Each structure stands twice: as C-alpha cells, then as structure tokens.
Amino acid sequence: MKLMRILFLLSFLSCFALSGMAMAGSFQVYPGSDLREDLRGMASGPVVRNLLEEFKEKNLKTLVFVTSADFESVVSFYEKTGKRYRVGALERRRGKKLYSAGTKLEEAFVILDGAPDLWTSRLWVKIQSPLIEQVQGEALDREYRNIRPMTEIILVDRRESQK
Known about the structure:
It is built from four helices and eight strands, in the order H-E-H-E-H-E-H-E-E-E-E-E. It is an alpha+beta fold.
C-alpha cells in the first residue's frame, strides 16, 4: 500500500516535470502585440547588438513585436515561462533618461530555454519600453529617434531550424 502511494506520487510529479520541460524553450506571443516586420533584425541596445554580431549564425532569427501594454505587465507575462536575466550595467542604467528625448528607458531580458546566461541561451526575449525605432551613432554619441510610448518585445531565436 505504501509502495503504491509512492509510485502514484512519483508518476504524478513526473507529469508536472515533463509538462514543465515541454514549456521550456517555447515562445508565446504577448496577447494583443503586433509583429513589426519593418523592425525585423533591428536590435536596440548595446548588449543585444553585440550578442547578435557575435553569434552571426545562419539559423539566427529575430522578431520584433510591439504592444501598448505597460512594461511590467509584459515582463511578468514572460517570467511565467522563463527566467529573468539581470545584466549588470543595464540594470544600473534601468530607468535612466534617454539622451535626446528625456524619456525613461526600461529593459529586461528573459531566458526561455533554461540556459544560465544570454550568451549560451538559444531562445530569449528582450523587453523594452519605450519603443525606439531608430538609433544612430555609437556609445555616448547615440541619438534616439522615433520614440513611441509602446513596449517592444525582441525575440532572439538561435535554435537549429526544424526540418
């Protein structure tokens, strides 16, 4: 009788573990967000740009979605299926004003495949508010243009394509 309970409990727990693994490594579009084909491949922010330049993989895909939902709601949505990754300098910069517009910049990274960091992850998202449609210049000379009061979701997918 005790053995039956233990076996039942183990099978029940393994179902939860398997369903959690099935969810890991999957991307869900934020409800009500729109795909912006015109921003495809454009990655705002130095960390995202550096990572994309470093990867230069033929299977690298980036998609950009935008939503009118607030930043924290979008971050909370993705934290349900992934793990928030804190990038030191970016977290200190979070909430600072954009140089040219006086608008606060908020950004967060969420790893969706269980990897320990962005460099080894094959599937992650960057969430940013506001939406910056154009960035010109480098480092401290950067100029931001077409700043919109929306939340941007950048999907970075480095997984091998399914054939």
